[in-house]
Structure formats: structure tokens, C-alpha cells
Amino acid sequence: MSQGVSYTLADFRKANEAQVLGALTASVASTGIQTTRTTQIDSWKQQIQILRRTATELIEANPAAASWHLILEYELPRRQKRPDAVLLAGDVILVVEFKVGADSFDASSRWQTEDYCLNLRDFHAECVGRSIVPVLCATAATGSENASVKVVGSVAPVQCANAENLSEVLTAAHRLAVQPGAAAINPRKWIESAYRPTLSVIEAAERLYGSHGVREISHSYASNLDETTDMLAKVIRDARANGTRHVCFVTGVPGAGKTLTGLNVVHDPSLRAEDGPSGIFLSGNGPLVKVVREALVLGQQRAGRRRQDSAHEVSTFIQNVHQFLRYHRENPTAKPHEHVVVFDEAQRAWDRERMQRKQGVDASEAAELFDVMDRLDGWAVIVALVGGGQEIFLGEAGLEEWGRAVSERPHWQVVASPEVVTGGASVSDHRLFDSGVPPAITVQSEPLAHLSVGVRSHRAQQLAEWVNAVLHVDVAQARELMPDSREFPLYVTRDLNQARAWLRARCPPEAEQRAGLVATSEDQRLRAYGLERSSGFRLGFSFEKWFLMPPTDSRSSHVLEVAASEFECQGLELDWVGLCWGGDLTLARDGSWDYRKFRGSVWNQVRGEIEQAYVRNRYRVLLTRARAGMVIWIPPGSANDKTLEPSRFNRVHDLLIAAGVPELQETAGALA
Known about the structure:
Layout: E1 5-8, H1 9-12, H2 17-29, H3 38-61, E2 69-72, E3 85-89, E4 92-99, H4 107-123, E5 131-138, E6 159-161, H5 166-177, H6 187-191, H7 201-209, H8 225-242, E7 245-252, H9 258-266, E8 280-283, H10 286-302, H11 307-314, E9 319-320, H12 321-330, E10 340-344, H13 352-359, H14 365-373, E11 380-386, H15 399-407, E12 412-416, H16 418-422, E13 443-445, E14 450-451, H17 463-471, H18 475-481, E15 490-493, H19 496-506, E16 515-519, H20 535-540, H21 543-548, E17 563-564, H22 566-569, E18 574-580, E19 585-587, E20 593-599, E21 602-605, H23 609-623, E22 626-633, H24 646-658, E23 666-667, E24 670-671
Helix pairs in contact: 2-3, 3-5, 7-9, 7-10, 8-9, 10-11, 12-14, 17-18, 17-23
């Protein structure tokens, strides 16, 4: 792994330019990039010249700066991001991004520079509690005024400089950020520091499939992922030792890492059998299963294996729960190979009525899973990962169906998040047992079974609560919970092309992040704006490619042509999301939600309370898919089309503005 090229300022101003260029080329090559373009070499030459002059000026102004440490092309591991220069100035970290030849400080470059600093703050162990200053150097700019805001122990606003005044800007930034008496940063410790970015579900699956752990997903925002995994591992060990049966209900806010926890439990090294994982990971989320499997197969192909050789092997890593149960239904004497089953999105398990209609079975999926695991001799553990308000289709039973199944099986001991027992925001106030815990059932309330910190959008810990407030039309609460615009950019626009331009600016091809559009499955009139929502189209389109292909592939989410529905994106995530609001959830004149479904050529009202909840939950899923930021596009509507009433969309737009979401503005040719 590259750790960049480092010098003290005293050494750097005397360094030979050719030697510095050679070291930079070798450092970048060590990351796997085999060739360095001529344009990059030319850019490095100009940066070196500017930095050598800047080093001299800094030392002349402050002799102590001679010992400051300059690191060029330091790689942020697994993100393939490399700030041009990091200056460890005593106790202050100055991050400099060059735009050679640029004559303005555009919004995209500002964000890129600030994003480097936010990543260092969140994931770099030696940056915790340190002052970090982003500095954007547009070499040909005429200069700009910088805000003189003193920031200690966090990330300062972006400071702008040009080739001539870089040393002045760095001196002023250091003066604002320095903490008198604070210990200076140890350069070697800083360079070799642990860097632990949050893994996506796909990244975690890839690591676990390669027999690597994912314990390092924790970051400076404390989460209890490790503690939850350890607690579940202990339950499994105790069940195995004592020959008992346990069902564990794990809850968490959207994006808290329930799926990551389940994958980690199944592949925990302390539990794994010699010939494979300790259990089986089941999901009723078909798109999630397909995307994760395809990611693993592509990884195997990159490693040189033939696709057909790895496809079958990969199919055992994560399995579809409907197929698992069907196999055991058709083979009534077959015992599961695994004593541990993790059921992801357990609240989406089918109820008895849907099972009768789809499978001809007079039992819910929860009840059938208990019966299958009861075939095992001795011990068994079911881990049910429960997301609140995530039921999005008719027949998804919710938490209560699990309670009914447990009530009929007192030989199963329950270990449950307190929110499962008493109700809470993470389960949308549902409860396992409607009328209290049945007398014959043993329930252990376990705080570690609740994941309270979001790791999907770690910079917007209250995003899920903001979404809840919006969906309850609680404007005052939503304004209080609105994410900080620097931590989690969130905007609204009426122009779809403007939304696309913002996403492209935030997520350029070299950023190694993923942007994409998401939209409700139920609004066929989004077709008027070029967004096809028909089920036939979605079935014929490869969303595995949408989630996994690079920006150069026309099937990729980066192209911003095809929008994933709540079904395709539930359980997965994107870095940058463009949410396309539909006509199925708009505001009535009295300010309450109006729930609709499009059938034939007209909108019909959705009147049933349960069906209305599915519509709300649809948007709960869509609004919580982003890891880094989101723009919400509200269609303008058309006065000449009764299916696209402008007033309905105007009221949704006004609600979001009132809830604290700023309008996306175009400033100086760059979206901000």
C-alpha cells in the first residue's frame, strides 16, 4: 500500500525535482497503477515548483516550519483517493488540493478538497481530535477572500489559494487552527496510522468471501457493530454447548449495519466450521442476493477464475430464503446443513395468506423457518435482522408475525433488542407481542441487539429521524433534524438535468464512488420525463450491472438514465443519490399525504391503512439509500395533463423547503 512520498519542509525545498518525480511515480505504481500519464507528470512538476517556493516562504516567515512534514500523494486506503499534498504543521493538518491551470474555485473542486478532510477526520485514527484545514489551490485564479473562522479539533471551511499566495493562505489557516500547548503530530505514526472507512454491503461481502474479517468497519463515530457480533457469537456458542434453541431479534436505524452484522456472524472466524461458514445467510431480497453474488463472481473473474467455475460456489455464500424453504418443503425429511440461520430483512417475511397464495402452504414464512430448524437434533439459532417501516409490499408480515410464531413454540428462547419488546423508532413502534410477552415464553432483553448508530451515512446520524419527521409531515421536527450541509449535502430541485449535473459534479469517474437515480416503482407517469417504471422493463434490465459496472458502461448507475426502485435498492446503498419523487405520494390541499396508485391511464386512491403504510415505507427506503449525500427531484408537472397535476408536486416541494431542505442553486457555472 502506498503511503505517499514524505519530506520535512527543510528537506523538500532542497530536494532534486527529478528525484521527487521518480518517487511519486514509484509510489503511485505501488497502488496498482502501472502507467502515469504525461499530463500527470506535468501537473506534478508545477506542483513541486509551487510547493518548493511555498516551503521557502513558510520557513522564512516561521523558522519552526522547517520541521513541518509534507506528504505528497498520500493514498486513502480502499478509496483510491490521493490528496495532492498533506502538511503536518505541528498539531494542525493542512490538506492541499491543486487544480493546475484552473482560474476559479468551482463547487466540485471545493467539495473534493473538503471530502478528503472529512474522510481523514472520520476514518484516520491519528486525525481524531485534530484540526484539519482543506486548502484548494487553483493555480491561475486571481485570489479570493477566505472566511476567518477559528476551528479547533474538526474540519475548517475550505480555504482558497492560487500559485502566488499559497504560503500566505497556509500561514493564516495554521494560525486559525493551532491549539496552544497541543502535542505535535508524529509524522511516522500519522503516515502508518490505521485507516478504517465504512464498508458497503458489497465490499464487506467481498472481504468475507475472501476469508477476511470486517471488524475494521468501525470509525470515529462509535458504533456497536463489533459488540453486537460478539453478543450473537456468545449466544451461538452457548446454544451449541447447552443444546438449546434461540431466536435473536436484531434491530437498528436504517443504515446501521444490520446486514453487515449478519454476514459477519455467519463468517465469524471464531464460529466457522473447518469446511465452511458457521451458518447460512438468507434474504428474501432478491435483488440484494443477485447483486452480491454478481459482485463476488466478478471478483473471482478478476482473479483469473472462469465465471462458470465460481458461479456455483458463490451461490452458497448468500441464499434466497424462499428457495431455502421451498427445498425443505419438497424434502420433508431433509435436515439443514447449518445450525445457524441469519434472516435478513426479517420484517419482510411473508404472512400466512401470501404463503397460501404463492406457495400453497398454510403457514407464514417465520413459522415455516422455525419448523425447518426444529428438524435439527440438539441446538439451533435463528438471527432475525429487523428493519422498521421497511415493509413495502402486500403480504410482508412485519414483526408481529414472528411473535405469533414464537408464541406457539415455547422451546425457543428469545434474545431481543429492547425496541422489539417495547416498540421504538427503529421498528416504527411495532412490537413482537401485541399483548405482552406470553407466560410460557422466555425473553432476554439485550441492549446490544440494537444498532443505534448509522454506518451507511455516518455523517448524518439523524437522517433516518429526519425522514420519519417528513413522512409524518412534522415540519418543525424535520427542521431540527435536518443534516448539516457540509456533513451530508441534501438539496431539492425541480430540474432533473440539474440534479444529474450535481450528481456528476459530486461523483466524477475517478472518485471511486457510485451515484445513481432511485424512484418509486408505482409511478408510471415518470415516463413523461424519460424514466421507465414498468415492471416489464425492470425485469428485463440487469440491476446487477447497474450497481457494479464502471462509469464507462452504459448500463451503470453512473449514467443516470435508469432509476432503481425500492425493490432493487433495499438493503443496498449508493454514495450519491438522486431521488425522483413520484405522484403516488403527494400532499392533499389540507396538508396530509394523499396515497395513490396508477392503473391504466388514471390515478386511483389507496384507502387501506396497511396499503398506505406500504406507500410511506416505499419512500422511507428511497430516502435512506445515500451514504454521502442526496438531491431530491420534484417533477414540475404539467397543467395540460391530469395525471401530472403541478399543484400536487408544488406542495411536496414546499414541504421539503419548510423541512429545511435548501433549493439547489447554480452559482458561477457550478452547482453548489
